[in-house]
Amino acid sequence: MATATVPAVEREDYLNKEYGIASWLLTTDHKRIALLYLISITFFFFIGGFFALLIRLELLTPAGDLVQADTYNKLFTQHGQVMVFFFLIPSIPAVLGNFLIPLMVGAKDLAFPRINLLSWYLYIIAGMMMVHCMLTGGVDTGWTFYTPFSTAFSNTKVIEAGLAIFVAGFSSILTGLNFVVTIHRMRAPGLTWSRLPLFVWAHYATSIIQILGTPVIAITLVLVVAERALHLGIFDPKLGGDPLLFQHLFWFYSHPAVYIMILPSMGVVTEIIPCFSRKRVFGYIFVALSSIAIAVFGFLVWAHHMFVAGISVYAALVFSILSYAVAVPSAVKVFNWTATLYKGSIHYSAPMLYAFGFVGLFTIGGLTGLFLSALGVDMHVHDTYFVIAHFHYIMVGGALMGYLGGMHFWWPKISGRLYPEAWARLAALIVFIGFNLTFFPQFILGYVGMPRRYYQYPPEYQVLNVLSTAGATVLAVGYLLPMIYFLWSMRYGKPAPDNPWRAAGLEWMVQSPPTTFNFAEQPVVTWEAYNYDEIDKGYKEEPQLVG
Amino acid sequence: MSDSQAVVPTAAHEDIHRPALLHHFATEEQQRDASNLGMWIFLATEVMFFGGLFCAYLIYRHWYFGDFGAASKSINALLGGVNTAVLICSSLTVVLAIWAAQTARRGMMLAMLALTMLFGLVFLGIKGVEYRDKFDENHVPGASFSFEKVPIPSHPDQYANPQHAQIFFALYFIMTGLHALHMVVGLGIFTWLFWMAWKGRFTPEYYTPLEIGGLYWHFVDIVWIYLFPLLYLIDRHP
């Protein structure tokens, strides 16, 4: 056990420096704000998960018997809105990114600590608006707010939900702005762009999308709210407006938004794989630039959501080809991860199991995305469960696996405690099995014709739906387990050494948990990222990892 | 200034004569660069924010060119032109205020900041007169909207479609309204800057808030520079 560095006396760190509610709610420490986010997004994750569970229970039987049709519409709408805007988009950036980026670049804090706190408050205000909206009637438009249904026909709380997401958007913008300025201006001496951890590169790409995409959804929601309140005609064909304009504006943000959700996970996996295979990342510069390429291409593919909405066939053709182009940088990443594993000294620790899960599930999700960007196939499976399965493989199998992997990998740094490794491996396995059992049947369901957003279905689809609901139950166990043992470890876990994984990176060179200002003195970087060959040479005995 | 990295802090870091330096920056230069970059990135988000509106406007302007022309003709280009001049003057006074800070001319800095705010208020006042005229003419979208028998400028024998004209006025009010809201925020920022300047917080060495506040003000001016021809001047014949 590499625990020689654990001191006998308690050191001062960011957790025990101050106590009391005000020292948390008024903090400008990026690490404490990260924990505030962790608590808040976990709350919303379980709300979103609760809706998902009700959806799966309704679909257990072909008849619409558990809830009424209107209730079902609200369930899938709010499941989507909560999970996308209040869990997935803030998840890795606002928790792990917030905690780690200043540490990784060798800075005392983000460039704008007070704006960082402001963005958490905006998130909380938005979240409270959303909760209020859900408690007082909810919204049933689908998370996409398509007009003219959302502006002229829906009798639910569209305006309140729209404003909640508008506010949440500014929280996201400010986080991205903070990251970009920090990465540009706060790097330690010697930490050149080509020595940056790829986690930071991934967040740089993510932040670009947050900065350039989110304002467009904001103005689109302003127009929807104005249209709904005053009947201006901007999106209403009856008054000369164009509902397709709404879809263009909406997807201009909401397609790149899926890269806001997946790129940080890719960054996490790129940290985990070299550490647990004790090798440098294969093709560093290609992995770094593929993040930027995904962000850039991501802005040019939005209309593939509109192939059956009545856009011109030439536009559809162009968007189809551009959608294929996104597969290239994504494949670069997958191949480079695989090449990094090749001849590595692989340790099957819990974070690595999540990383393996990520690579496999992201590959399936990405390849089925190519099915959907093919015009002909999309005509067949558009708005079916095939689409649902595809994006859950990316969002849950990809983004969420990466998030959990990252939480395990950095938990010793965040909490100063080790989690129980055997339980963590079991949980990773349960999540993987539960996930596939939930969503693989949905590919088949969609392909044989079950449409999305219906609360009843013909009896021949029942077997696959029962499998999916059973999987969702398993998945729920897999999500509750880490929550339980993380909380358990905060009190009973073994104290973590500063670098339990013998990992590379500045964040592992400071104590666990770090002090408020991270570094006692300004670090100077003289080494390449992921220098695992040099690190392992530094240890005399055979590297032996904790757990 | 290149894409600099932090400089190793020296003993001067603790110097009590550098009150504006925040704890997590190594040097004032790094701090100023960070603030400036932050504001430029914020302005990029603002470009995208207004960009969605400009996109919607251009599409409908293209679709309903004549109807939009008729509606456009009903708004007062003279008042819009005066407002353009007022805003350009206010940008000049912002620059002069920064120059006064750089050259330690306190009185001039305060005067220029006050003048900037005055120009801003004049702009909002004139905008208010324009809005009142639209209310009087029943050109505000909604239940009482009316745009009957207004000829299309390029085809005087045809009348504009009132529904399409209503889309013009909806976009007109949303675009100029959001711009005016940005002006109000700008006035708030400049009140704060004036207060800081009054208390003597700005020196030739430290005037970053003036600089980034000025960037914001210029941006809001530039939005108007695009709004004015798009809304008031296209296809306008005397």
Your description of this structure?
The complex is a heterodimer of chains A (547) and B (238). With 547 residues, chain A is mostly helical. Chain A has a single domain (28-535), classed as Cytochrome c oxidase-like, subunit I domain (Cytochrome C Oxidase, Chain A). Chain A is built from 16 helices and no strands. In chain A, helix 2 packs parallel to helix 4. With 238 residues, chain B is an all-alpha fold. Chain B has one domain: Four Helix Bundle (Hemerythrin (Met), subunit A) (Up-down Bundle). Helix content of chain B is 69%, strand content 3%. In chain B, strands 1-2 form a two-stranded antiparallel sheet. In chain B, helix 3 (77-102) packs antiparallel against helix 6 (208-233) and helix 5 runs antiparallel to helix 6. Chains A and B meet through helix 6, helix 7 and helix 8 of A and helix 1 and helix 5 of B.
CATH architecture of chain B: Up-down Bundle
Low-confidence stretches of chain B: 7-15
Number of domains of chain B: 1
CATH superfamily of chain B: Cytochrome c oxidase, subunit III, four-helix bundle
Set out the fold topology:
The complex is a heterodimer of chains A (about 550) and B (about 240).
Chain A: H1 21-25, H2 30-58, H3 69-105, H4 113-135, H5 149-153, H6 158-185, H7 198-230, H8 243-277, H9 284-298, H10 313-341, H11 350-373, H12 375-381, H13 385-415, H14 421-447, H15 462-492, H16 532-538
Helix pairs in contact in A: 2-3, 2-4, 2-15, 3-6, 3-7, 3-8, 3-13, 4-6, 6-7, 7-8, 7-9, 8-9, 8-10, 8-11, 8-13, 9-10, 10-11, 11-13, 11-14, 13-14, 14-15
Chain B: H1 28-63, H2 65-73, H3 77-102, H4 106-136, E1 151-152, E2 155-159, H5 162-198, H6 208-233
Antiparallel strand pairs in B: 1-2
